[in-house]
Design goal:
The complex is a heterodimer of chains A (about 60) and B (about 375). Chain A is an all-alpha fold. Chain A has 2 helices and no strands. In chain A, helix 1 packs antiparallel against helix 2. Chain B is built from 9 helices and 8 strands. The N and C termini of chain B lie far apart (about 85 Å). Chain B has 3 domains: about 70 residues, no CATH class; about 60 residues, no CATH class; about 210 residues, no CATH class. In chain B, about 20% of the residues are buried. The chains are: A mainly alpha (about 60), B mainly alpha (about 375). At the A-B interface, helix 2 of A face helix 8 and helix 9 of B.
Chain lengths: ~60, ~375
């Protein structure tokens, strides 16, 4: 009963981690390509990362 | 000459090391037992820290005689139980005794107030360790409520001082105003206008500024060592998210509702599938807002306190400085998180308001 839920939450967190990693990596590339747009890219990056982070936390609290 | 000086710190270090090893030897006997209790104490402290409480405890310690002493001040307890009942939380004696008010008896059981039968009344628990006693309606000024009121007062003075400084100096801010102006302008120029649009942003500025400064100041208060934290109470973040939800729902224009119930530009079977998903999405958005703030702050506090707790568990010369150093680094990270979460909350609120008031010319 407990273990599948924990494994599922772990999988969700791995997915969220990959997602945030990809966002961060893409933002880095974008900033390297266009340093003058750093501010805009950072804002968009933070919003996207926050949205994914919410899913990860939701999984953790579903287990709790 | 140079060699002589460089020897000094080494000697000092060696001297310190002997002290450390001496101290360890003293604790040597029965080490297993003390380690277990230290672990339990750290765990208990973290659990206690995350909870709201009826009194404002600054710190507590155990005297040499083994008596527990609590330093702090009590806060008022306000109950509605066949009439208003107001009394000081010092009557609970930190959950140890039953409080008597106008012939009724109340007991503080794991941070919640229950009604008991008499002065020696006990809490009756069912099989799942849930208390079955009657619970009166609770409007108490708890630690969290106290801090919210405190932040309200601080913000009121901060911003009224800012407004006055504009009036006094013919539009040139001084003092508090000079400090706050860039932040207010940042919220307007970087958060409100890009997300909501030039036309409608003014209506939402008051809420965005309030929520930004409230969450920020409250998060910063969570980092001072007197142990007040409000945003790791899910009820507080629920209220903040609920306000965002209500504002979004009531400012939604024709286009907003059309995009939820009858998405333009997609085939009819798809429209029928999309409508419930979009409707659910309006609730999930503030729900995520609530969970994000709550979980970030709670996780930060738990990790920070666990690392500081390691100092009490690792009884050697390496563990304690390491845990203190990590705690210091993490505390700085938490300073960033405090501002970042306030920013994210405000940006996402602005984004949702922007969605609600967006005007589409063509489709």
């Amino acid at each position: 009963m407990e273990i599948p839920a924990i494994v599922g939450a772990g999988l969700v967190v791995i997915g969220a981690g990959i997602g945030i990693g990809r966002i961060g990596g893409s933002a880095m590339e974008a900033i390297a390509r266009q340093p003058e747009a750093t501010g805009k890219i950072q804002t968009a990056m933070l919003i996207a990362a926050a949205l994914i982070e919410g899913i990860g936390f939701a999984a953790l609290f579903a287990v709790n | 000459m140079r060699r002589k000086i460089s020897l000094k710190p080494i000697t000092l270090l060696l001297l310190l090391l002997t002290f450390v090893s001496y101290g360890k030897e003293q604790e040597g006997h029965g080490e297993k037992e003390t380690e277990k209790t230290a672990k339990e104490a750290v765990n208990e402290y973290i659990q206690h820290h995350l909870k709201d409480s009826y009194d404002f405890g600054l710190f507590s310690y155990t005297t040499d005689e083994g008596k527990e002493k609590h330093v702090g001040f009590p806060l008022p307890v306000i109950l509605w139980d066949n009439g208003l009942k107001v009394f000081s939380s010092s009557k609970f004696h930190h959950g140890e005794t039953v409080a008597e008010v106008d012939g009724s008896f109340y007991k503080n059981h794991h941070g919640k107030i229950y009604k008991v039968d008499g002065p020696n009344g006990e809490i009756i628990e069912d099989d799942h360790h849930h208390a079955t006693n009657e619970k009166p309606l609770d409007f108490s000024i708890t630690k969290n409520v106290f801090l919210i009121i405190l932040v309200f007062v601080i913000m009121f003075f901060m911003f009224s001082k800012m407004a006055k400084s504009y009036k006094k100096n013919n539009g040139m801010p001084k003092g508090m105003g000079r400090f706050l102006e860039p932040i207010v302008l940042y919220v307007r120029d970087e958060i409100a206008i890009p997300n909501i649009g030039e036309k409608h942003y003014k209506r939402y500025m008051s809420y965005l500024l309030t929520v930004f400064f409230f969450v920020w100041i409250v998060n910063l208060f969570g980092l001072v060592p007197i142990g007040m934290n409000v945003t790791n109470n899910i009820a507080v973040t629920l209220c903040l998210a609920l306000i965002t939800y209500v504002i979004t729902t009531f400012s939604g224009n024709k286009n907003y509702w059309k995009h939820i119930f009858w998405m333009p530009g997609v085939p009819v079977p798809m429209k029928i599938i999309l409508a419930p998903i979009e409707l659910l999405g309006t609730i999930i958005k503030p729900f995520a807002l609530m969970i994000r703030l709550y979980a970030n702050i709670t996780a930060g506090h738990v990790v920070l306190m666990s690392i500081i707790g390691l100092a009490f568990l690792a009884k050697n010369w390496l563990g304690t400085p390491l845990s203190l150093f990590l705690g210091f680094v993490l505390a700085i990270l938490e300073l960033l998180v405090a501002a970042l979460q306030a920013y994210i909350f405000t940006v996402l609120s602005a984004l949702y308001f922007g969605m609600a008031v967006e005007e589409h010319e063509h489709h």
